[in-house]
Design a protein that fits this description.
alpha/beta, Rossmann fold, 2 domains, 7-stranded mixed sheet, 6-stranded antiparallel sheet, 11 helices, 20 strands, elongated, Leu-bd, ABC transporter substrate-binding protein
């Protein structure tokens, strides 16, 4: 079966090249994209507007270092999708699209021998993205990298084929081995998995995590004068994360009073709160991290016996069911606004019969970055200068930019939990 090839063109109809230029004024854990679809925003991004002419979402490639831009935004829309994309079977060599520059997607198959879970979501979203935005100038080749030998061979072969970009969703140690290769011996690399070091250069971690949400939430609290912070986190929360939170608070002129860790039981949550009573007496802000409903158990225990007038900051990792807990009312959470994701959520579900996931949204944006640059600058434009444009990109995961150090900076909106749902407090800035 491996010798057969199956190619699926991302868009059947060409409506001609249209460049939309708009001016704008002015982050493994979820960053809240899927959950944020439950929100009831009070306003929407002014720069995300669809017309009847554009039936597919637009990824706006912000120019920054890109020469020839005449405005703050170089937006691209071509080959608008009008027909469904059917994903090829996972037991053949897969390509989405027929011609143009190659974008290689490195994934691992599951125990069934098929792409499963997040890998399947990313693969399908990549197909949707190149169909929307590739314009017959880019296609996605899906490569099974289930073994270390496969990875080394795949990267070498990609370099020989003059691949424009590698996109990896592999175990961190595998992606790290690719990232460690000299930059001139491989294509640029966008990582959709756990962040890896980018010391060799031209490596970019695209995924935001719970820390990004926590940091933005603390910054918002500090801006309103709440600067004495106590934090709670699950026992597996890394020490480096605690240091980063402390640095964030101090950089805002505040005081980080300490962190207490908890296990995933009500008894552990209650014990953690009791141990933290002395710190809570001197605090005005409580940050609660965790991918668990126990987060609201902790909040409830603090509210029941702690000092009044505390500001509570949650994170985008909180499960959606926590919003319905009465104790969560008033909690502030920073996350990606749902506007961008809604542009492709319905079509993704129609094509693939399941709900758009955060992993899928990242996969869509990774391909969209490459497609946009290829269409405006050609395959050679996928270089460090253009990938790290200071004005960044606007995609379905919001406004973000990649940095030379390999990290991602993302603009988040601020929500509060009220009546069992998220309510928008302030929209993300429209530029960096």
């Amino acid at each position: 079966m491996g010798s057969r090839k199956s190619r699926f063109c991302g868009a059947a109809d060409t409506v001609g090249e249209t460049v939309t230029v708009q001016r704008i004024g002015h982050a493994r854990s979820s960053h809240g994209l899927q959950r944020a679809r439950q929100a009831q925003p009070l306003s929407t991004f002014g720069s995300l507007r669809l017309t009847a002419r554009f039936m597919a979402p637009l990824l706006f490639v912000l120019c920054g270092a890109l020469a020839s831009c005449q405005s703050d935004v170089d937006g691209v829309a071509k080959n608008v999708k009008t027909n469904d994309i059917k994903a090829p079977a996972s037991d053949v060599e897969e390509s989405f699209g027929e011609s143009g520059a190659e974008i290689t997607l490195l994934l691992q198959k599951g125990g069934s021998g098929l792409f499963e879970g997040p890998s399947r979501d990313i693969r399908d979203a990549a197909g949707l993205s190149v169909g929307d935005l590739g314009g017959n100038q880019a296609f996605v080749k899906v490569v099974d990298a289930s073994s270390a030998a496969n990875v080394a061979t795949a990267v070498s072969a990609a370099k020989a084929r003059n691949v424009a970009l590698l996109i990896s969703y592999l175990p961190p140690q595998v992606t790290a081995s690719i990232a460690a290769m000299p930059a001139d011996q491989r294509p640029p690399l966008v990582n959709l998995g756990v962040p890896v070091p980018a010391m060799a250069g031209n490596v970019y971690n695209l995924v935001s995590d719970e820390m990004d949400s926590a940091v933005e939430g603390l910054r918002a609290a500090a801006a309103s004068g709440h600067k004495k912070v106590v934090a709670f986190a699950q026992t597996d929360f890394p020490q480096a994360g605690e240091f980063k939170l402390g640095d964030t608070v101090r950089a805002s002129g505040g005081t980080f009073l300490g962190m207490t860790r908890y296990n995933l039981t009500d008894a552990s949550a209650s014990d953690a709160v009791q141990k933290s009573r002395p710190m809570l007496q001197g605090a005005d802000t409580v940050l609660i991290l965790g991918r668990t409903a126990i987060a609201t158990t902790i909040e409830g225990a603090i509210k029941a016996g702690g000092p009044p007038n505390l500001t509570f900051v949650g994170t985008s990792a909180w499960p959606p069911q926590t919003y319905a807990e009465p104790t969560a009312n008033g909690t502030v959470i920073a996350m990606v606004e749902p506007e961008g994701a809604s542009l492709i959520a319905e079509r993704y579900k129609r094509h693939y019969k399941r709900t758009l996931s955060t992993d899928a949204a990242y996969g869509y944006d990774a391909v969209a970055i490459a497609s946009g640059i290829i269409r405006t600058k050609g395959p050679a434009g996928l270089n460090a200068e253009n990938l790290t444009s200071k004005t960044g990109f606007r995609g379905v995961t919001g406004l973000f930019r990649l940095t030379p150090s390999g990290q991602v900076e993302r603009r988040l909106s601020l929500f509060t939990i009220s009546g069992g749902k998220l309510t928008l407090l302030s929209a993300a800035p429209t530029s960096f």
